[in-house]
Design a protein that fits this description.
By secondary structure, the chain is an alpha/beta fold. It is built from 17 helices and ten strands. The chain is about 50% helix and about 15% strand.
Length: about 400
């Protein structure tokens, strides 16, 4: 990090930060209550953006990480913002889990995102899916206008890093996604000559990748199930298979030899009773269930029956740990690409931070707006209060952007 980059412009100037929990810092069980589903992401970005002094923000939520990219006042700690977010968004007290979160600031935050985009921080090193997930996260933040100039530049630079690392190094070669690793793990436990019936639960990118990977298992039969039947039928059509609603799960579990499930349900959708029912009606046939969801879709204790094997993301983590040595040999090349892109980003940031919105003068505008708003906001309902705070912040930002350095 260059000394120029970290130079403090003003006690109240802005800086980039990321605060998050990942598969490295927390177990699957610890991450489950913190997870933010794709359906919740837009609202979550809105809530995060309404917290005072959050100038820009984007939430990245995947099966292996929940990270909050923030542009904040320098005197504000990112973990305090994240704690306030969970209190507002989910009514959860984060205090017992604060130690699970890691925080990086300024250029370290940018470097972290570039490493994530390159797949270097993934559970499956070099995975390709993370780049699409970052693009989805960024698009969600753009849709609710919580991303601004710094976030725009940061993420687009990260996309360039991810693309170049995969094209110029060996890091992205071979099976590089959680879905592909899950299928490889399953294939290591079943015979390719058994013509397995494979049931996919959920309609999303993770299931699509897993199904495409399973297509290489000869003579397998696919079934798809989803909460909305029409979506399941339409999805199944791409694989010349049949689609069903979730109410058919008990009988589908009897038919299937392998189940791959990944939904955004906050509660298990494959219950202990369902698996017990299937086990009784399957006779000696073995059932393997791969749970790729977080929170987990399957509620069934391990080792309950010898003919039922339930695997989840922790098993994939163990499976891939010993297979990634070859990919890590490409790290020096990837690090060099990241260093070059980081220099470009820091050069750009040195110019941007002279603007009122980021050098601290914008905070004075924000203080004036907050002061005027405080006289009326206390009588408003919580939802309206949240919207008023967001509108007020956007007005302050627009004034800061157009006022120039001499306005205050």
């Amino acid at each position: 990090m260059s000394s120029e980059e970290v130079r403090v412009m003003s006690p109240l100037s802005k800086r980039l930060a990321v605060c998050g929990v990942t598969h490295v810092t927390a177990t699957l069980a610890e991450r489950e209550p913190l997870q933010i589903s794709g359906e919740e992401l837009a609202h979550a970005n809105t809530v995060l953006a309404s917290i005072p002094h959050v100038t820009e923000s984007t939430i990245v939520s995947t099966c292996n990480r929940i990270e909050f990219y923030l542009v904040l006042r320098r005197d504000q700690e990112p973990i305090d913002v994240v704690e306030e977010f969970y209190r507002r968004f989910r009514g959860v007290d984060l205090e017992p889990n604060r130690s699970l979160f890691e925080t990086r600031k300024s250029t370290h935050a940018a470097e972290h995102l570039f490493r994530v985009a390159a797949g270097m921080n993934s559970m499956v090193v070099g995975e390709t899916q993370i780049l699409g997930q970052l693009k989805d996260a960024y698009a969600s933040a753009c849709a609710v206008k919580s991303a601004g100039k710094v976030i725009h530049r940061l993420f687009h630079q990260a996309f360039r890093v991810g693309k170049q690392v995969r094209s110029d190094t060996e890091l992205g070669k071979g099976a590089c996604s959680v879905s592909s690793a899950a299928v490889e793990l399953l294939k290591s436990k079943i015979s390719l000559h058994e013509r397995p019936v494979i049931l996919f639960v959920g309609v999303n990118q993770m299931v699509k990748l897993a199904a495409a990977r399973c297509g290489r298992i000869h003579h397998s039969t696919f079934l798809f199930a989803n909460r909305t039947v029409d979506k399941a039928v339409e999805f199944a059509r791409h694989f010349e298979a049949a689609g069903f609603g979730l109410q058919r799960l008990p009988e589908l579990l009897v038919r299937a030899d392998v189940v791959i499930t990944c939904t955004s349900s906050p509660k298990p959708i494959i219950t202990r009773n369902m698996i017990e029912f299937a086990a009784v009606h399957r006779g000696h046939r073995k059932l393997m269930v791969m749970d790729l969801a977080i929170p987990r879709d399957v509620d069934y204790p391990r080792g309950e029956r010898t003919n039922v094997l339930v695997l989840d993301l922790e098993d994939i983590r163990t499976f891939v740990r010993d297979q990634q040595a070859r990919r890590t040999e490409s790290f020096p090349q990837a690090e060099e690409i990241i260093r070059q892109k980081l220099d470009e980003y820091n050069y750009w940031w040195r110019h941007v931070r002279e603007e009122p919105l980021y050098n601290g003068h914008g905070d004075e505008i924000g203080s004036i707006v907050d002061s005027e708003l405080s006289s009326v906001i206390g009588d408003c309902p919580p939802e309206l209060r949240e919207q008023l705070n967001l509108v007020a912040r956007r007005i302050a930002e627009r004034v800061a952007r157009t006022s120039g350095g001499s306005a205050l």
